[in-house]
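Treating backbone geometry as a discrete language has practical consequences that deserve illustration. The amino acid sequence and the backbone structure tokens for this protein are reproduced below.
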Amino acid sequence: MHGAHTRRIHAVTAVLFAFALVACADDTLTPDGDRPDLSDQVYDPNRLLNIDIELPEASWDSLRHESRDLGDVLGGDCLSEPFGSPFTWFEGAVTIDGVALAPVDVRKKGFLGSLDDVRPSLKLDLGEYESDRRFETVRRLTLNNNLSDPAQLRQCIGYALFGRAGVPSPRCNFAEVTVNGRDLGVYSNVEGVRKPFLRRHFSSDEGNLYEGTLSDFRPGWTATFEPDTNSDEPDNSDILGVVDALSVDDDSLMDSLAEVLDLDAWFTFWAVESLILHWDGYSGNTNNYYVYFDPDTGLAHFIPWGIDNILSRGDRGGAPDSAFVSGALANRLYQHPEGRRMYETRLRELLDTVWDEDWIQSEIDRISILIGSSLTDAQAAVFEQEVAVVASVVAERRSVILAELDAPPVDAEFSLRPPICFVSNGSIEASFETTWNSISDQSPFEFGTSDLDLRFDDDRVEFFSTGVVAGFEDEGASLLFGGAISETELIAVYLTLSDDELRTGFIDIGIGGRESAYVLYRDTDTMDDFALAGYVQGRLLFDEFGAADGDTVAGYFSATIYGGAE
């Protein structure tokens, strides 16, 4: 969730340094007589689908600007219920590889990190208006915009690696998408985890399927599990059974877990998550996964989801290089002698059988050729560089893991993922005036005029100088307020703006979509870089705006600051 935001924060610090869900239904027609299951064709790894979507322009504008409010999602008691979907279905038409289908339903998708109002991730329901309408027996398509994966290929390679390890995993390929004739470039076409998926991997689809979003098997964290089957009469007693199984002492732990969890499948799932660096999955972030309770055995199985942030480097914060241990199940087992032995044995097995660098590189090469000519200019500008990052991480991953596994074991306590619920702890108000593209050569602490009123816990921050600059930079259109508290203490409020909303009028600013905002702080005597002091959710009003060099940009900004977890 935080990967894209971290990159944006790093980008703005360079500037500052210069100046100091719906219940499951059948998606796929099952083989019967003259109607064989053709879904393998839809997800053929060598196929690049061509998907043309038509919507009334007003519907498209409404769809793409729908978002999630940071305060509603992560504010207050955010672990009290499933997060649900705020998005609306819109009637439209779609043509897939020349096959026209209409009417169909289209909506936006995404939680926080993948939200975008120019290239939104999309869901298509081909059978909403005619129940047996399918494309090659598939009813629903999930099209991911790969916002967090400029290399475009992480999801398909990651799901394939899970599948090679024997983990039930979505099928994945690619689609070139247009909306009303606008080329949106390459999307990942990922199989949804619904009843047809369950039938392919388990003997029955009648068990309880839950989507885990910031959900964990510990007291107070189970209410966000969203039931995706049997949702008319949800019963999360099976989830609570895993919580209870984790509560026993070390001597009873393995036997207790074996009563509720397919341990063999779990260790494989956990090891693959760690192997591919899925930091935003269950074991790394209690996020982006499904859990299915097989009705034949009553045991839980984990299913991967949302793996667009894998195979990338990042600060492990003192956690092991060979294991993600932020989820309660992973954390407890990693610090249990038998649990760690079983995990590390499975990880070594996967290094020998599944982690094939030559195969992964061949997939990187194959996909690059398949989608290369279909990328938009913006996608193509960073594609090769990001693909090289993936290749280098793959090349070094084995040696990094083995170095830790072969070293003497470290006896240490590893932290669980902390609560995610943000608290409102401040506010911002500012009237301002500056000039466009002043961001390229003027100090945000001195240029322009701004009566920046910033408060933390109702205490007003006193500034001896303030300023504001605006313009285009690497992250896109930006507005940057600066305030100097003293000769060494600096605060910046950084807003990124969607290019198509650079106009007079109101703009909603927040963590969802391209319009994101942060408060940053630095003491130049003690800090080498600016640090995140809070996320911002609010509204920006341009009274006057021009996007040519030197044009006046003036208006008003009001927002709430969210920081820290409850």
Remarks:
- Confidence is low (pLDDT under 50) at residues 1-7, 20-25, 29-33.
- The chain has two domains: 38-353, 422-565.
- Residues 38-353 form one domain.
- The two ends are 18 Å apart (CA to CA).
